[in-house]
Amino acid sequence: VNKVLESKFYSRSTVDVARELVGMRLVRNIMTMAGDFTRIAGIIVETEAYEGTDDPASHARMGPTSRNHVMFGPAGRSYVYFTYGNHFCFNVTAKSRSQLAGAVLLRAIEPLEGTEIMKANRGREDLRMLASGPGRLAQALGIDRKLNGVDMTLPGAEICIEANAAPKRVAATPRIGITRATRRRWRFVDASSRFQSRYSRIKVR
DNA sequence: CGCTCGATATTCT
DNA sequence: GAATATCGAGCGA
Length: 205
Fold this sequence. Notes:
The chain has 205 residues and is an alpha+beta fold. Helix content is 13%, strand content 28%. The chain is built from four helices and eight strands, in the order H-H-E-E-E-E-E-H-H-E-E-E. Strands 1, 2, 3, 4, 5, 6, 7 and 8 form an eight-stranded antiparallel sheet that branches. The termini are far apart. The chain binds a DNA duplex (13 and 13 nucleotides) through strand 3, strand 4 and helix 4.
């Protein structure tokens, strides 16, 4: 049985947590229409770190607001926001004691459990089209505003992350889709995975 | 494979 | 008004 990541794991530098989350297993516990619990899960292959007022690309750069306040709270909570008028993005808060705010955006997973549910949620069959991007990932796992602020360190939480072995090679690149602080290489990917978001394939030589 | 473009709600200036 | 931590379709090579 894999161990659910606890508060201690998330209570460290946002960038360190983002790097180490690559390879871990993201788990969504849902109730089926029949009334029993089942899992949707996959291996995290792509993340990005967003800090607080020191990070010009972060939602938290201007201080706490109604949207971003979870980023300023305890580590290990879900931070879900709506963007581009169409998509939800899913993050987990992560920060050391000295940081004011921080969260890790989960950008892609390799589907492993509950793939039929993911296919239904996405309206697609191809495994590589299920959760290879932050908006796709949220849709595949049935994540919306209702999951904002969930404590992901509690056993049986609606969403949590389980420990798993790290991949061989984690590449660091600039974050995707931002216009500020583009020189910081705070995006982390399993370079050998086939399930990265489509804007982000690393050229492997 | 890669590029461009339109959609669309919320937040920011 | 403008920008946005995006996606999918449509196009050309």
